[in-house]
Amino acid sequence: MKLEGSVSLPAPSDKLWDMLQDPEFLKEVMPGCKELKRTGEDQFEGVVGAKVGSIFSQYTTKFTLYDKNPPDSYRLKIEGSGKGGFVQADMKVSLESQDSNETELTYSGEASIGGTIARVGQRLLDAATKMLINKGFKTLKKKVELSLGNK
């Protein structure tokens, strides 16, 4: 499944970069994230719950950041598994300053989903994925605004 999109965030790229490296911050903005902790440099593990159609599953998930180019870009590898199946993704995340207090976050990559959760059908899976991403970005934008006192 191809994943791509962008969101404009009210923060300079260097401040946004720092926020996106903080597991406590990320836990608050990731939909369904129950736990997230740093396990090494540029590595995190967590527990994320997701519902697609009538199927809910919790995933033990590993996140790895690599090809870092602070504060402009990094790649994110995601590996998760649970009773609902598995999720694997590799994404490029770019931060481009629009002005001193605005950054465009762009993401693109591929995700593979298998197991019970993948059997609900591609259209339902695509819709659920988009909904989770949009919810996460909406929460991210609010959290950035609150963290920097912008609104």
Shape: globular
CATH domain class name: Alpha Beta
Main beta-sheet annotation = 7 strands, antiparallel
Cα Rg: 15 Å
Keywords, please?
151 residues; alpha+beta; Alpha-D-Glucose-1,6-Bisphosphate, Chain A, domain 4; 7-stranded antiparallel β-sheet; 3 helices; 52% strand; globular
Q: What would your notes on this structure say?
A:
Helices cover 27% and strands 52% of the residues. By secondary structure, it is of the alpha+beta class. It has a single domain (2-145), classed as START domain (Alpha-D-Glucose-1,6-Bisphosphate, Chain A, domain 4). Helix 2 crosses helix 3 (122-148). The mean pLDDT is 92.
In short:
The protein is α+β, with helices and mostly antiparallel strands. It is built from three helices and seven strands; from the N terminus they run βααββββββα. The longest helix has 27 residues.
